[in-house]
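User: Need the bound-state model for adenosine-5'-triphosphate:
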Amino acid sequence: MNEAHLIDAQGLGKTYGSLAVLIDANFTVSAGEIRALVGSNGAGKSTLIKILTGAIAPTTGTVKVDGKELVLGSPTEMINSGIACIYQHSNLAPAMTVLDNIFLGRQPTKRFGLLDRKRQRREAEELLQRHAIQIDLDALVSTLPTVKQKEVEILKALALNARILLMDEPTGWLAASDVAKLHATIRTLKSSGVAIVYISHMLDEIFAVCDTVTVMRDGRIISEGKVADITRPSLVKLMVGEKLAKDSAQAGKFKRMARGTGKVRLSANGLTKRGVFSDISFDLFAGEIFCITGLIGSKRTEFLHTLFGSDRFDSGELKVDGKVISFKSPTQAISNGMGFVTEDRHREGLMLGLSISNNLVMATLRKFHKFGLLKRKEIYSATGEMITDLNIQPPDPIKPVRLLSGGNQQKVLLGKWLNLKPKFLLLDEPTVGVDVGAKAEIYAILRAERDKGAAILVVSSDLEEVMTISDRIAVMVSGRLVAIHDADKTTLAEIIGEIGGAAR
Ligand SMILES: Nc1ncnc2c1ncn2[C@@H]1O[C@H](COP(=O)(O)OP(=O)(O)OP(=O)(O)O)[C@@H](O)[C@H]1O
Ligand SMILES: [Mg+2]
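Assistant: Bound-state model below.
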């Protein structure tokens, strides 16, 4: 490893009004180093990254690249110094080719477009070769699997001569096998001397791919070291503190309830949507957590949308509480006691401009109207408890959701549906971006709802989560349910085997 730091940030601080969200952070990364940046939701990780991309200017501190001090708060300056960032949500133009995306937004350097195209193609091919990435330059981005799209983003960064690659939760939407592919790409980048900063709440990923780790808590860097020198429990303790670390270690020790309390709440019989999913049959019982796992793209999300009435099925029968029904709209599903925590909080779940409390009561807003006016006081008192239960940070009901960290936004989304006291709760990847401590809290809340008799259907690709929270586990492969297990009668290996059967 190169001893000289490629990037050297000293004394970085950021305050919003009187709120300090980043305090005196010293942060360095060397060429060929993969540095993990970890910490609870709201710890300040993304804030640090945003300063390094120039998206925001720090209140205090300096950043040097190769010993040269940079002008902060300028994205152009950062790009020119070789810093690039890959986010969880893609910034690509889906209707354009890989090649066009790689060079998107760049000024043509020649007067004649054609020559430029040739040169771009040559440059791109060189990059592919140098970094051992295989991808069809002429494919439309929209046709590529998510993991390939991540590679396009990486190529785009490399084409800008990035030597420092920041990755803020890059694997949120990737299946386990794709995470491994992305890690292989990251390792080749490392060997060509790129410095990488890797943010993730998935500790397995930290231990799999990172050399060093920086831990943040409450806006400060509280610990640094080699990944090889730290154990998983001690890392968790550093991130969330003693008490929560204990809670999250306990997360798996709940009583399982195969078949719940015995009453069928929802029954799917041969549900089919042509070209999407087919012949899906299962019963969902009151008082159970039923997880559907599988690869990303196995059509689980589409299936949930049909149950919820935001999409239709072609054939088969759905019974809710013994009645044959097919919801014509989400509104109808909601009035029948169904809640749906969607996977993409930005697109469909939250109103980012509205406050925490308004989002929390969104699904139940009618209760808080009086003569056309919103009863603000009642909203605040009704949401205070939820904010505490979910440990939403900051616990300020009037804070706009857009100002919350990613994981805290996810908690607001969950709280919004819990407030409905749903009889049926559908959740799609409920803890993507949520830290280990908050995960344990969310699992406890789901168990409590289950124990009160709710029928809970979870779609999750996080196998650790699936093994932890499920009473029963179903495996979906290319739109079909290939197996349903009682969770205490199956093993992780068996589930992985069934999911993997898909790949062949
Ligand atoms: N524009 C803003 N105004 C006020 N507060 C903000 C603003 N942007 C971020 N914050 C606050 O800064 C703190 C740190 O947020 P940051 O996004 O850096 O957390 P994070 O470590 O990335 O968390 P997560 O794991 O949930 O993504 C949070 O408390 C957040 O509410
Ligand atoms: Mg973040």
